[in-house]
Specification:
Chain C: This is Phosphate transport system permease protein PstA. The structure holds 3 protein chains of 3 kinds. Chain A has helices spanning 2-29, 38-75, 85-99, 110-148, 155-193, 198-203, 225-256, 259-273, 277-299, 308-333, 336-344, 349-378, 381-386, 404-412, 421-454; strands spanning 207-208, 221-222. By secondary structure, chain A is mainly alpha-helical. Chain A folds into 2 domains: 2-153, no CATH class; 221-454, MetI-like (MetI-like fold). The longest helix of chain A is centred in the N-terminal third of the chain and has 39 residues, at 110-148. Chain A is flat. Chain B has a single domain (21-265), classed as Rossmann fold (3-Layer(aba) Sandwich). Chain B has helices spanning 9-12, 61-67, 98-104, 119-130, 136-149, 153-156, 169-181, 199-212, 225-231, 249-254, 259-265; strands at residues 21-32, 35-46, 50-54, 78-86, 89-90, 105-108, 187-191, 217-221, 234-239, 242-248. In chain B, α4 (119-130) packs parallel to α7 (169-181). The two termini of chain B are 29 Å apart. The chains are: A mainly alpha, B alpha/beta, C mainly alpha.
């Protein structure tokens, strides 16, 4: 339905373009020079005709439901006024389902049917009103714009201003995304903190979200620390694997590898960086986990197949290409003059790398490590599959642990009931995760940017 | 403002004839991929002399300079043919260690390139690399004497722990020269050492070159003919990959044998 | 300077030469060690990657072939007692006809199809088979196959009374047994199949009745719980396809537009600095956070349906957007300013310069970045779990609003299936399909980059 409407507007816009085009040609026929090429007049008319209508359409869609709901609520029998917010929401959902012709479970009250009928009526009325006002806007816009066509009209400048505005608007989406993330996480987390106090959450050492008979009011215990600890443990293991291997790979690629190897290896590394993490998770589960556990048996240590070590190791493998391609970029940015300076003094290549190139690249490389750490902390699927989901505080990397991300998945998968602390805690965890990674990312980005500017 | 760069040339031009040949090149050709950049250069460089390579840009003078301590090794696709000898030993001999060669033949680049370390560490880098100082005091000595010889000591002695990149352009270049001296090489190559500097800094560097020529053989590339005339004992004119003419600086500038040299120094091309 | 000075210089030189020469051996040894470490890192990384691919290929490739029964089934009219297929009469309303058809379909559904298959199997098996062995017999065939037989008759009722040759998938347990994916020496109690069924399976394999044939089910069927042997990827594939179409349709225009604005039009000030940091940070925000955003805003606030590719597509769009913006900006930045100056110099406006000259030149880079971004979105799992795309879906979704799952989520679901020794291979096969898709996307991107690579 809406698609048809948009298509119609587009067709009308095409017509408007033609009108503008022929009108501007007609004006130009008198021998006057137009300010812009005729096409721009066409586009201008089309924009005047279509944009206001489309804007109205968007606003209407956003507001219609809320307004109709308000009107319907006002018509409900007065004895329902005492309903709580949640009950009201449920009722509105029932009425909405009735109005859209879906079946309902349970008895249907007469006032519900009445409200549903009213809702249907309002909706069709609203739709009609919207069509009408869109049509009026389009016609008015068309006529006005078409009238304004004259040789003096700077059509191109007008059109370009609109284009620039559209471009600027789309760059707002990225900002909106961040705002959306912050608002949604913050909103639901605040909701969560109305059940569980922040102190209990941030400093609690026990994670047991099930309803427990003992403890804080039957809510279960939501201590963040075991999860945070698991996250840190796995990330540290991952970085211990990824940083030396990734950095040495980058150094070898940037300084030693012959050009042909570089031209082959770089795309391969890029592709590796794109392998979905679920694949690494599966790899951890069926290969690395059993292998480590077997190895443990061999040397007499008890290593669980799904453990912090397994997850960390595989996550490390996953991050190697990430670390190496970031470091490679940074190492190759160290100017040749510094390398020449060291070599000219009689340094061997490794001395040049270790004593001149790496110190010079250090800020950038540290930035890369921070980004890698942020990646490790936010990684989900590997840990879901390979960490064993055991939210207990302990320092044994051969044991199972749980992480923030795993717990988000566990608490929010399946049911979408945002009213129990058991599922709301996912947002508090998400907020924690977001803040930690935001900190790491921003520091890393600033450091790397400073570094880049130094050598530009 | 006037700068005193007038060095009594006559006094410096001691008995050049009695000196040993420090470096010599025979039939040196350099290729970048398919492209032949130098077409067979023959040259003898005497001990403790300052020789300047001049010529229009792209004539191969820098390329040849970089052959003298094998800096061209670092350029992918560069290939050197012919013979270059240091004290009679072929420096392209596979058995020769390029690290050792570069300890003997130092190089100063066109753009000052101090390491992003402190002034002290910049100078100490070479000696540390080669293990030339056993004790801290020894290293301190080397740093001080190198800075003194480069005429930088008085300017930086109170801030040796500050980054070398914080100095002015001319100071940076003298720092780089000091860094090279600290390894006490026998030959110092200078690749247009003053092209990025202002006239005052240039004057200081030229004075420094003149002083250094007492104990070092100095080979410099310059695009500035006045500079060559001021500091070099000998001058070699390169053009299109050939060594056109070489001789005492005075002769080259007053009485060139070749027409091309004459055209160049009188500004017909370049 | 004095002669003593010269002497010290000379002696220092001699001394220095000796020192340098003495240190050379160990320095070169260190050089070799360092280079060796670099090579070791590269080789380790390559070996790990090889193990990853090899283990997945080894497990997954055999799963593309499945144990299949080649049977001749006699469609006995005694057993299939149904009326003629109803034909619509002229006087009949569609509803009436539909009712008659339903009756007929019901009859078909009541037929003992299993019995027919039993008979066909018995024909190949030696000895008398008693009715108490029926269970063992039926364990041979994938339980979904009786419906396939029914559907075949439904389509062509004329087959009744004939003997037709049918390819039927053997049950998952038989497939596992015949491929040796379960230890044959395990005790009866720990085997998934009874001794009798195992014996029959081996016998039929020997007779050539069970053959390994290419598993079209893997590609054409949807996921199945009751009949694991016929579980396929078709549903997940369509889900992923819908999401990717949404991602492409939204991210590419939005991403390119905002990149153009930021790179070509936006003034350089604190605000744009902030936007830049914001975009770079968004690119590094853990994907699961986008899942939380989707759950809270798209599902919770806007009330879009759970498990719908529409929501998944929107979430992935927001996730991919920063990547594409960054890639596009890099592509735009690589166009030398001289091109812009040339265009501006002949009187083009900034908008014209960008759209006529800069954008076409940057197109290959933009395309490459977009493809890589989409490939990354294709492999994303974690955020989809939070918006309910891990639900079991038995139908191929026909629109972005239907319930659906996605390829990586299907992998997640299969790896967790309790029928481990069957689904381990099946999961690997699904991973191969997913990686195949992603690698071909990557290959296209790399090829594009190579083809259009320009050096300025």
């Amino acid at each position: 339905m809406n698609l048809v409407l948009i298509a119609t507007v587009l067709i009308v816009m095409a017509l408007a373009y033609q009108i503008g085009l022929s009108r501007s040609r007609a004006v130009a026929n008198g021998g006057v020079r137009l300010h812009s090429r005729p096409g721009y007049y066409g586009v201008l008319v089309a924009l005047w005709c279509g944009l206001p209508a489309l804007l109205l359409f968007g606003v209407w869609l956003l507001l219609q439901d809320a307004i109709i709901e308000m009107l319907v609520v006002n018509q409900l029998p007065p004895e329902l006024a005492g309903l709580s917010e949640r009950e009201m929401q449920a009722l509105m959902r029932r009425i909405g389902a009735l109005a859209s012709g879906q079946g309902l479970a349970g008895e249907v009250e007469a006032y519900e049917i009445a409200a549903a009928q009213q809702m249907t009526r309002l909706e069709s009325m609203g739709r009609l009103a919207m069509f009408a006002s869109m049509a009026v806007l389009a016609v008015v816009g068309l006529v006005l714009a078409q009238r304004r066509i004259s040789p003096q009209l700077r059509a191109r400048n007008h059109v370009e201003r609109v284009i620039t505005a559209l471009l600027a608007l789309s760059s707002g989406v990225a900002i909106l995304t961040t705002v959306g993330i912050v608002l949604s996480l913050l909103g639901e987390a605040v909701h969560f903190f109305s059940y569980i106090s922040p102190a209990e959450f941030f400093f609690g050492t026990v994670w047991n979200p099930r309803f427990s008979s003992a403890g804080s009011g039957g809510q279960g215990q939501f201590g963040l620390l075991p999860l945070l600890w698991g996250t840190v443990m796995i990330s540290v293991i991952a970085l211990l694997v990824a940083i030396p291997l990734g950095l040495m790979t980058a150094i070898y690629m940037a300084e030693y590898a012959p050009p042909w190897l570089r031209s082959v290896a770089k795309p391969v590394i890029e592709v590796l960086a794109g392998i979905p993490t679920i694949v690494y998770g599966f790899f951890a589960l069926i290969v690395i986990g059993p292998f480590l556990s077997g190895l443990g048996d061999l040397i007499g240590i008890n290593i669980r197949a799904t453990s912090a070590l397994t997850a960390g190791l595989v996550m490390g493998i996953m991050i190697i290409p990430f670390v190496s391609s970031l470091s490679d970029d940074i190492i190759t940015q160290v100017p040749k003059s510094l390398r020449d300076g060291a070599l000219g003094l009689g340094a061997t290549k490794s001395e040049m790398i270790r004593q001149v190139v790496l110190p010079a690249a250090l800020p950038g490389i540290v930035g890369a490590f921070l980004l890698a750490a942020s990646r490790a902390i936010g990684e989900t699927m590997i840990v879901v599959l390979a960490a064993g989901n055991n939210p207990v505080l302990h320092a044994n990397p051969f044991e199972a642990v749980s992480t923030i991300t795993v717990t988000i998945v566990n608490q929010l998968t399946g049911d979408m009931d945002f009213s129990s602390p058991q599922s709301l805690v996912a947002f508090a965890l998400g907020l924690t995760l977001f803040v930690i990674t935001l900190g790491l990312n921003v520091i890393a980005l600033v450091v790397v940017r400073k570094y880049r500017q130094q050598y530009e | 403002m006037t700068v005193s760069v007038t060095v009594p040339m006559a006094m410096n031009k001691r008995t050049l004839e009695s000196r040993n040949v420090k470096m010599s090149a025979r039939g040196v050709k350099v290729f970048y991929g398919e492209n032949e950049a130098l077409h067979g250069i023959d040259i003898d460089i005497l001990e403790n002399e300052v020789i300047a390579f001049i010529g229009p840009s792209g004539c191969g003078k820098s390329t040849f300079l970089r052959c003298l301590n094998r800096m061209n090794d670092t350029i992918a696709g560069a290939r050197v043919e012919g013979q270059i000898a240091l004290d009679g030993n072929d420096i392209y001999d596979p058995s020769l260690d390029v690290v050792l060669l570069r300890a003997q033949v130092g190089i100063v680049f066109q753009k000052p390139n101090p390491f992003p370390k402190s002034i002290y560490e910049n100078i100490a880098y070479g000696p540390r690399l080669h293990g030339l100082a056993r004790r801290r005091a020894e290293l301190d000595d080397i740093v001080e004497s190198s800075l003194r010889r480069a005429g930088l000591w008085d300017e930086v002695k109170d801030r040796l722990d500050q980054p070398g990149t914080g100095l002015s352009g001319g100071q940076q270049q003298r720092l780089c020269i000091a860094r090279t001296i600290a390894v006490s090489p026998e030959v110092i190559l200078m690749d247009e050492p003053c092209s990025a500097l202002d006239p005052i800094a240039t004057g200081k560097i030229e004075q420094l070159i003149d002083e250094l020529s007492e104990s070092y053989t100095i080979v410099m590339v310059t695009h500035n003919m006045q500079q060559a005339a001021r500091v070099a004992h000998k001058t070699a004119f390169f053009h299109l990959g050939d060594l056109v003419e070489m001789g005492d600086t005075d002769d080259i500038f007053t009485n060139p044998r070749e027409q091309r040299t004459h055209d160049y120094i009188t500004g017909r091309f370049g | 300077m004095t002669t003593t000075n010269l002497d010290t210089v000379d002696s220092r030189r001699r001394q220095r030469l000796d020192t340098v020469q003495r240190s050379l051996k160990s320095r070169h040894a260190r050089e070799r060690r360092f280079q060796g470490m670099g090579l070791f890192a590269v080789i380790t990384a390559l070996v790990l990657v090889t193990i990853l691919f090899a283990s997945i290929l080894m497990r997954g490739v055999p799963a593309f072939w499945q144990a299949t029964l080649y049977l001749d089934v006699h469609l006995d009219p005694e057993v299939i007692q149904v009326d003629e297929r109803p034909v619509r009469q002229a006087a009949e309303s569609p509803a009436q006809f539909r009712e008659r058809e339903l009756v007929w379909l019901n009859q078909l559904g009541m037929v003992n199809w299993n019995g027919l298959i039993d008979e066909a199997l018995k024909a190949h098996l030696p000895g008398e088979i008693e009715s108490r062995q029926t269970r063992d017999l039926r364990a041979l065939v994938a339980s979904g196959e009786r419906f396939a037989l029914r559907d075949r008759v439904m389509e062509n009722p004329g087959l009744i009374g004939q003997t037709i040759s049918v390819k039927m998938l053997a049950s998952a347990d038989v497939d596992v047994w015949l491929k040796g994916n379960i230890d044959r020496s395990l005790a009866d109690s720990r085997q998934q199949l009874s001794a009798q069924t195992r014996e029959w399976a081996d016998y039929l394999k020997e007779q050539g009745v069970i053959r390994n044939s290419f598993s079209t089910a893997l590609f054409l069927n949807t996921d199945s719980r009751s009949s694991p042997a016929s579980a396929g990827l078709a549903g997940a594939f369509m889900g992923s396809l819908f999401m990717m179409l949404i991602v492409i349709a939204l991210t590419v225009p939005l991403g390119v537009a905002s990149a153009i604005y930021l790179e070509e039009f936006a003034p350089r000030n604190r605000l744009t600095d902030l936007i830049e940091i914001n975009i770079n940070n968004l690119a590094a925000v853990p994907s699961i956070v986008f899942g939380l955003l989707g759950a809270a805003i798209f599902v919770g606030y806007l009330g879009l349906p759970l498990s719908a590719p529409l929501v998944g597509g929107l979430v992935l769009t927001l996730m991919t957007l920063p990547t594409i913006i960054i890639a596009t900006r890099a592509a735009l930045r690589s166009i030398p300013p001289s091109i812009r100056q040339a265009a501006l110099g002949i009187g083009a406006s900034r908008v014209q310069t960008v759209f006529h000259h800069v954008l076409p030149l940057a197109l290959p880079g933009i395309l490459t970045g977009s493809i890589l971004g989409v490939a990354q979105a294709l492999g994303e799992t974690a955020p989809l779990l939070l918006i309910g795309m891990n639900a079991f879906v038995a139908n191929v979704p026909s629109s972005p609003m239907d319930q659906a799952t996605a390829l990586p989520v299907q992998i997640y679901l299969w790896q967790g299936n309790e029928l481990r020794n069957f689904f381990e291979a099946r999961t690997s096969a699904a991973i191969i399909v997913l990686l195949g898709l992603m690698l071909s996307l990557n290959a296209v991107a790399i090829w594009l980059r190579k083809k259009f690579e320009t050096r300025w």
